Extracellular solute-binding protein
Amino acid sequence: MAEEPVPHPLDPPKRPQGRGEATGSHRIVGKKAPRRKVAMWPIAAVVLVALIAIGVFGWNWADGELSTRAEAQAKACVAGDTPMRVVVTPSIEKPVRAAAERWNNAATVVRDHCVVIQVDALSSAAVLDGLVGRTNLDSIGGLPAAWIPESSYWVTELNTAKPELVGSPAQSVATARSADYPLVGLAGKSIDEVQMRASQTFRQFLQQPAQQADFAAAGIKAT
């Protein structure tokens, strides 16, 4: 059996061969391992889910807001619909009808009632005759809640003959040559407090810019 050679004192010591210097599948000690790439699809999936959740939440919130507003408006009209008839002189029929349509579409509420305005056009002389009793009241379709003649002359005649029929002071809603178109609220057994209040509210409505524009388009000056 051969004897191992005795190492010379000046020879460098032999290092034991470890796994770090081994060849093959073992990695070399001292070298950094390559960094593993992070997959991006899980992050993208999380972001997509978050966006979908936000979209669903936003849609539900908006839908809930619209429903709440609709319910609030419906609750405001708790007493239901109340018709209100307004008789006007023919020269102002078109803008007043446009205003009444706008009022009705907005479901305007007066004292818990959705007041629905009906506009009829009749000559001021015929309306005065019916109101003061010179003709049958049915000839003008019964007692209206409000009346808009050409001028204050007709209101003065009514106040002189039947002052009890004047429910609220007349006030002009438009002007033209020799005409001031006063709206007067009427009073009587067939006219309740809601209609009396609504006639004043409708007069104020007619004096707003949108309705005044309709008068101007019809060749009638604004108030």
User: Anything to note?
Assistant: The first helix runs from residue 41 to 76. The CA atoms of residues 89 and 149 lie 5 Å apart.
